[in-house]
Amino acid sequence: MMILTLFLRPLQGLDGTNGMLEPWFESKGLGDADQVLAYFAVSKLGEPPVDGKTDTNPEGLTASYGKWASVVAERLQAGGLTCKVLNKEAFQKQMLEKLIWISAFMLVGARHPGTTVGGVEKEYRSEVSSLIAELASAAAAEKGLVFEEAMEDRLCAYSRAVAHFPTAVKEFKWRNGWFYSLSEKAIAAGKPDPCPLHTAWLKELKVV
Question: What separation in angstroms does the CA of 169 have from each of 154, 159, 173?
């Protein structure tokens, strides 16, 4: 079975699925399902898709893994899109980076109403940098992974590629909610909050 996981919000307000889907997959017995992490968008019917390339990843960000990963990659490439075939760990790290991106940039943007994703990268870089580092540390500890260096640079490059996107904290269960659940679990066990800045800003905005 192939699961298509969309992490780039299509244009014209047509939402993709942005978030942590692993718990849902596992609850449905789909923990080993093939997946595609799709970074492309179509602005309107009939127009060619826009590929998810950035100045740090000109080879494109779309990735797939699993039994049928190479078949999907070939079909996307035949349509003029890029697609890497990754093993499960590499795919999971890239998926988590995208989760960190949307959770961090949307939360910082929400603190500054009217700010776009590009505005966060340009005007509130120190805030989003601190949050990226915090969320990355928590995700790495939870999943037992070591992220590649220069994550902040990659995520900021992606923000420049989709600079016009508006910011808002929504789909909480699938996005920031995963990190908040790590905080709740740690606090319930008498441990320090692994994401104190994230928690404080969620409370500031009355999200939790």
Answer: 21, 16, 11
CA distance 38 to 82: 10
Q: E strands within 1-66?
A: 2-6, 34-38, 40-41, 50-51, 63-65
**59 residue type, one letter:** E
Select, from the ranges 50-64, 104-118, 151-165, the one with the highest average predicted confidence (pLDDT). 104-118
pLDDT in tens, 148-197: 999 999 999 999 988 888 999 999 999 999 999 999 999 999 999 999 99
Cα 59-64-65 angle, rounded to 5 deg: 130
Lateral strand order in the sheet of 84-85: 2-6, 34-38, 63-65, 84-85
d(CA 177, CA 132): 15
Closest CA to 57 of 92, 98, 14: 98
